[in-house]
Amino acid sequence: MMNLQEKIASTRELCISALQTPPLDTIVANFKRAGIGGSESMNILRSVLCSKNRKDSLFSTLHQVGAHLDLASDDSATLSRVLLLQSALANLDRLEHLPVVSSVQSMFCDEFKFFVQPSDRGLHWFQPEYYAFEAFSKIALLERFPAGQFDWEISGFPRSWLPKVPLPELPRVSHFIATKLKGFAPCFNPHMPIRSPGMLLERECLRAWHRIARSIEMQRHIKGLVVASWYHSTDTFRVSPHLSFMNKPFIESGALITTMGPAPEDSGFLTGSPSRRRLYESGQFKPTYGLVLWSRGQMLHWANAHPELSQY
């Protein structure tokens, strides 16, 4: 098995080789003439992510910086891969010093290798209008962190969420933010990964939470973890009790768990469970967002209590 340094070196070689291979090499040559290297690619990704129409923004931005590409708009996925690979290459030297556990550093390499050779199923994910492009861009920019069954980003608890908290729960939530989190931000915010294995496994989820908790130990300014998802709602567990392990670390360590308003149909609860769909359509399942606040101290206490999960 390769160590981290070897894996980074291998990933670098694969990224360079991909950029020298058709159809990416033609775009790279055009980029080179326009002076677009790794740092410029990162700036372009950040600019495109801020736009409402990412595809138009991508072509417009490249035109503005002098990359006059003779490509149809449906080639935007190829353009995206070049930007992602050049950004990933520029950040590989930073990877070893990133304040996260080594398994997360290794998973960054796995994501970069996917940019090199995406699956047939995943090729369309590089289209700028897809959410996957946003997630991949943040990974290439080292702003979204892969941890296995979850990714995470650094954000916080939006104040706009407070009115959505049930009124009887609001004092408890406010007190936790003030005394346990000690502020609204910065916090880790977990997300489901784009390249999900398709099945949530308890052991792998616990390992992912452990990676996240161990990584917060290395980032002293992070106050804790905040997540709002139907996956963490007790209403979900009533109809899908097999998912209750999703909240196991939070319950064990005394995190705050409550709900935060109804979950819309497009939030994902209808996927993967015909029985959950039937209960929803019959009115027997009313999905809500589960809200979890997990303080830094609670995360570290839980991680220390489970050293067996560090055997990645």
What does this structure look like?
The protein is mainly alpha-helical and 312 residues long. The protein folds into two domains: 141 residues, no CATH class; 160 residues, no CATH class. Helix content is 48%, strand content 11%. The protein is built from 13 helices and six strands. The strands form two sheets. The protein has a three-stranded antiparallel β-sheet with strand order 1-2-3. A three-stranded antiparallel β-sheet has the order 4-6-5. Strand 1 and strand 2 form a beta hairpin. Helix 5 packs parallel to helix 7. The longest helix has 20 residues. The protein is globular and about 60 Å long. It starts with a helix and ends in a 7-residue tail after the last helix. The mean pLDDT is 93.
